[in-house]
Design goal:
The protein has helices at 10-39, 44-65, 74-90, 113-132, 139-158, 163-180, 184-204, 206-216, 227-239, 264-297, 301-325, 344-360; strands at residues 104-106, 109-111. 45% of the residues are buried. Helices cover 67% and strands 2% of the residues. It has one domain (10-366). The protein has a two-stranded antiparallel ribbon with strand order 1-2. It contains 12 helices and 2 strands, in the order H-H-H-E-E-H-H-H-H-H-H-H-H-H. The radius of gyration is 21 Å and the shape is globular. Its main location: membrane. Pathway: Cell wall biogenesis; peptidoglycan biosynthesis.
Amino acid sequence: MNKKRGPVDFPLFITILILLAIGINMVFSASMVEDYYKHNNTMYHLIRQLVWSGFGLFAMIVMANVDYFKLKNKKLIFFGMAATIVLLVVVLFMPPLNGARRWIGVGGLGIQPSEIAKLMLIIYLSDNISRKGEKIKSFTYGVLPVLFISGIFAALIILEPNMSTTMIILATAFALLFAGGVPLKYLTGLLMVGLLGAVVLIAIAPYRLQRVTAFLNPWSDPLGDGYQAIQSLYALGSGGFFGVKLGQSRQKFHYIPEAQNDFIFAIIGEELGFIGVLIIILLFAFLIWRGMKIALSCKDKFGSLLATGITTLIAVQSSINFLVVSSFMPVTGVTLPLISYGGSSLVFTMASLGVLLNISRHTIRNGVE
């Protein structure tokens, strides 16, 4: 591989910083009321978001400058995969929080192993698929091992339980198989099996079935399962075209629980209106477009798959958040990348984007042939 490196994709870099800046401002706006009553400090979440953003920027800069090809090291991948699986097992023995075990506490902080799993699985699958070359078209040799490893990650995460992250991981794995050249007949079969599996997981868990019922008619249980969806629609609807102005949201006054997290997009719609919502969607669309362009411009198969996986991850996660907040999808706990309040989610998202920026330095655009 030619080691010549050019500059990072500047439009992508600027887009990331703009989304991060919007996220910091909206976290402050969405959380200030709750923070005043709970912590007597309106900047409680803002300070933490700034700290995590600092860690995230550091991770992004490091990953943008350490040659991504070093991630292809077999020993590094083996250790990373093993450590991730251990963390995914350990988290199952943690005390539940809101009915789920997703965090491992470290002092006053915590890490979410599923966030590590997203990036680690992308690295592993990109390496695995790129090494197999044309043999990936064989179901037994190419597809089955990928399904086995992805299945282990998915099974451990669904036990937390965390179906939304499971969906995101499997969708990303599917995209990598598609980009790797797996025949359409296998992909179609996998899609059918995946949809059937989703139906079964929903059917066997009463709370998931209730969420689907609430999605179909949230006003059938306005104070229960339909509550968040209804309050989110109130926020989006009251925002109108230009919004009620930054900081003036009414829904953050204990109507939308922890508005700085999964439903921050509703607060954006209320305060910044249709214009603000459109700008956010366009920024994510631009980020995804730049990511796919980087994937297509990278002549190294590993780098191309890595860029595809990271871009797909951002695309799927942001799309799910948009759909949930606007009630086009049942309520599920998915944060909006770079915007929602978060610790490990923000840091690992930015680390992933750092890898994407690194790959952009090795594209045809920068003279690498």
